[in-house]
Amino acid sequence: MEKIYFPHGVCSRRYDIILEDGVIQSITVEGGCNGNLKGICALLRGQRAEDIIPKLRGTQCGMRGTSCPDQIARALEEALAEEAGA
User: Fold this and answer.
1) Average per-residue pLDDT in the chain?
2) Per-residue DSSP letter, 11
3) What is the CA radius of gyration of the chain?
């Protein structure tokens, strides 16, 4: 399933996620720290979303109270919930 997520409180503007049976097939990020986010997305490919969420959730960028990894975790939570409801 495809999930488009619009993050809040970070520099990145959009996440495109492809999830199949809870496994991350692909994540692409528009905006943000290009090289860092490409690296994070490459590391996440092939991983179970349920394993990744607790690792990324709560990560902060400065004083923002969130970060791109935290927002990716939130997007994955939504994607898993949508996949379960489908």
Assistant:
1) 96
2) S
3) 12
Helix, strand or coil, per DSSP, at residue 82: helix
Closest CA to 41 of 21, 12, 61: 12
CATH number for 2-85 (one of 2.40.30, 3.30.1120, 3.40.50, 3.30.390): it is 3.30.390
Structure tokens at 44: 């996440």
8 A C-beta contact, residue 17 and residue 5 = yes
Give 43-78 pLDDT, tens digit per residue.
999 999 999 999 999 999 999 999 999 999 999 999
Cα–Cα distance for residue pair 8/45, rounded to 1 Å: 23
Residue spans of alpha helices (H) in 1-86: 34-44, 49-56, 68-85
Q: Please tell me the total number of residues recorded for the chain in this structure.
A: 86
- Pairing mode, strands 12-20 and 2-5: antiparallel
